[in-house]
Structure formats: structure tokens, C-alpha cells
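Table S2 (continued). Query chain:
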Amino acid sequence: MKAAVEAEGYQRKRADDFWVNHNVIQDIPELICTSSVAICDLSDKNPNVFYEAGIAHTLGKEVILITQSMNDVPFDLRSLRCITFLNNQEGFDKLASDLLARLHFFGLIHKSMVATWWRFTRTKH
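Corresponding output:
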């Protein structure tokens, strides 16, 4: 997924990959503000991801929701389209393809647009 999106000219950025402010929670809105799109993995119902997706929606950013299971998507977000994927290589390959299709749909594949933010998919234990 990372390689496919970066091959299109995007940079993957996560708040925990850099240190601008003393508190990571301050870096998150700043990162989202400077991003073209937020790719949010709702798998495992991580409350931080829902918070970050809410910020991105509030700021009017394009948000692409991904999940391993629609059971992880709360009722009030199920009206939004989500890309579902399997937690294996075939699933990750399809996810990368689906993400690129969504980015093309939004018209966000441009070499000059380099700020992208997402949560990495996590393997379920």
C-alpha cells in the first residue's frame, strides 16, 4: 500500500513519525491541515483514528475509510463508503489498487500533492 501510493508522488506522513510540538496531539491537526487526503483505518475500532477522521472531516479534507471488517465501523459512519480488505498479501495488494482508484476519482493523483496522512493497517492478534 505504501509503495503504491508513494509511487504516485505522495509522501506518507504520520504524527508519530516526526516531532514538531512537544505533544503529539498537537502535531495531528497540523499534519491533517497540510495533507491532501486522510486515509483512516477503522479496523479494531481505535478511538484515536475516529478522532483523527473527525478532524479531517471537519476541515473538509478528503477522507478514505478502510477497514478489515464492517463490524468495526460504527453505525453513524456506515453511510460513508469504506474500502474493506483482508489481512493478507492478496488483501493488501487489492487495498493498494482500491486506494489508487479512489485517489484518481478524487483527482488527487498529482506529483505536486505530496502531503498524505494515514494510519497503517495493523495485523490482528
